[in-house]
Design a protein that fits this description.
CATH architecture of the largest domain: 3-Layer(aba) Sandwich
Structural class: alpha/beta
Distance between the termini: 56 Å
Shape: globular
Radius of gyration: 20 Å
Strand order of the largest sheet: 1-2-10-7-8-9
Number of strands: 10
Number of helices: 15
Bound molecules: ligand AN7
Largest sheet: 6 strands, mixed
Order of helices and strands: HEHEHEHEHEHEHHEHEHHEHHEHH
Length: 352
C-alpha cells in the first residue's frame, strides 16, 4: 500500500495544477466524516447527519487543502515568498506551508480580531505578521495591490489553485458516502470553500454520477453581504473567521447555491454559539464558532419549518478546530474550583 501523501497526490488526476508545481504537503485532507446521531435527534430527528471535521487538518482548518496546491504552484515557479490577508486560518495555513517550502510568508490580519490559536500559529510558523487597523476586506485589497507590485505570491482564495485543492473536501465526502449527500451545510466568509465544494461535486457528478447536493451556505447576521445583496462596510460577528463584508467569490457562491437548488442564509451570533456548544456537548466535537454556523443555519431552517429533512442525508462541513479560539469558551466560565490535595475535599466539592 502506498502511504497517504496528501490531497494533491490522492486526487492528482482531478486537480488542475500546472506541470511546474512542486508538491509541498503536510498530508492534509483525509479528514473523518463523523456521524452525529445525537445532534440530529436534538434537531428533530428523521434524517442522517454527518460532520466533515476539517479541524483535523495539519494546521487545524480546511484551508490546508487549498494551501498545499497554492504553495506547490508558487514554489514550482520559483516564488520565494507568499502573502495573504486573513481572519486567521488562512494566515496559519499559508505560514505553515511556506515554512515547509522554505519560503517566506507575510500575513495581514485585522487588528485585534484574530483568535489566539490562529495568531499563535502564524507566529510559530515564522510568518511576518502585520495587523491592519481596518477590516479583513481592507487587508485583502492591500495584499492584492502588494502582490501586483512586488514579487510576492498571493495565496488568498482568489488564487485559482486554492480552489483546485479545496475541491478535495467534496471528493472525500462522496468517496466516503459513495454518493453526494442530499444537503451540504457550510459557513460562508470569503466564499472560497462553497465555490470549491460546488466545483468538486460537479466534477464528481460528471465523472462518477455521484449526484449533487443542495447547498446551505451560512453567514453571520452582522457579516451577511450575500444575504443582504450588498457589501457590509463594518462587518461584526463573534465568529471572527467569517467577519467579512465583501467576499471575493461572492458572485460564485450565490450562483453555486442557486444552481444547487439551495440557498445562502444568515444566523445570529447567539445561534452560532449555541450550536458550537451543542456540537461539543452532544457529539464531543469542538469547533470554532464560524465552523458551527452551517449547522446553526440548518437548525434555524428546521425550527422555522423551511426545511424538510425527513429521510435526507445531510453533511455539515465544520471548517476549523475549537482550539483555534479558546477564549470564546473560557471567557464565559468562572475559573474551575480549587481544592486542597485531599479526597475529603474533593468529595465535599463533587458530592455536596
Ligand atoms: C473556520 O482565514 O477567510 O467562505 O482568512 O476560517 O472559504 O472564506 C477564513 C474563512 C469558514 C469561511 N470557517 O470560508 C481566512 C478566512 C472558518 C474560516 C470560513 C473561514 P470561505
Amino acid at each position: 500500500m502506498i502511504p497517504y501523501q496528501g490531497v494533491l497526490q490522492r486526487f492528482s488526476s482531478l486537480l488542475d495544477l500546472p506541470e511546474h508545481a512542486r508538491p509541498v504537503s503536510l498530508l492534509e485532507g483525509d479528514t473523518p466524516l463523523i456521524p452525529a446521531a445525537s445532534l440530529a435527534r436534538e434537531l428533530g430527528g428523521g434524517f442522517e447527519l454527518f460532520i466533515k471535521y476539517e479541524g483535523l487538518n495539519p494546521t487545524g482548518s480546511f484551508k490546508d487543502r487549498g494551501m498545499t496546491a497554492a504553495v506547490s504552484e508558487a514554489l514550482g515557479r520559483g516564488a520565494s515568498a507568499v502573502i495573504c490577508a486573513s481572519t486567521g486560518n488562512t494566515a496559519a495555513s499559508a505560514a505553515a506551508y511556506a515554512a515547509r517550502a522554505g519560503m517566506r510568508s507575510v500575513v495581514l490580519i485585522p487588528q485585534g480580531k484574530v483568535a489566539t490559536g490562529k495568531l499563535a500559529g502564524a507566529l510559530a510558523y515564522g510568518a511576518r505578521v502585520v495587523q491592519v487597523n481596518g477590516s479583513f476586506d481592507d487587508a485583502l485589497t492591500m495584499v492584492i495591490e502588494m502582490s501586483n507590485k512586488h514579487p510576492l505570491c498571493l495565496v488568498n482564495s482568489i488564487n485559482p489553485y486554492r480552489i483546485e485543492g479545496q475541491k478535495s473536501a467534496a471528493f472525500e465526502v462522496c468517496d466516503t458516502l459513495e454518493t453526494a449527500p442530499d444537503w451540504l451545510c457550510l459557513p460562508v466568509g470569503n466564499a472560497g470553500n462553497i465555490t470549491a465544494c460546488w466545483a468538486g461535486f460537479k466534477q464528481y457528478e460528471t465523472l462518477k454520477s455521484s449526484g449533487l447536493p443542495q447547498l446551505l451556505g451560512v453567514q453571520a447576521e452582522g457579516a451577511a453581504p450575500l444575504v443582504l445583496g450588498h457589501p457590509v462596510e463594518h462587518p461584526e460577528t463573534v465568529a471572527t473567521a467569517i467577519r467579512i463584508g465583501k467576499p471575493a467569490r461572492g458572485e460564485q457562491a450565490l450562483q453555486a447555491a442557486e444552481e444547487s437548488g439551495g440557498r445562502i442564509i444568515a444566523v445570529s451570533d447567539a445561534a452560532i454559539l449555541k450550536m458550537q456548544q451543542a456540537l461539543a456537548r452532544l457529539e464531543g466535537i469542538w469547533v470554532e464558532p464560524a465552523s458551527a454556523a452551517g449547522l446553526a443555519g440548518l437548525a434555524d431552517e428546521l425550527s422555522a419549518g423551511r426545511f424538510d429533512a425527513r429521510g435526507k442525508r445531510i453533511v455539515a462541513i465544520c471548517t476549523g478546530h475549537g482550539m483555534k479560539d479558546p477564549d470564546i469558551i473560557t471567557q464565559d466560565f468562572t475559573c474551575p474550583t480549587v481544592v486542597p490535595p485531599r479526597l475529603d475535599a474533593l468529595e465535599e466539592v463533587l458530592l455536596r
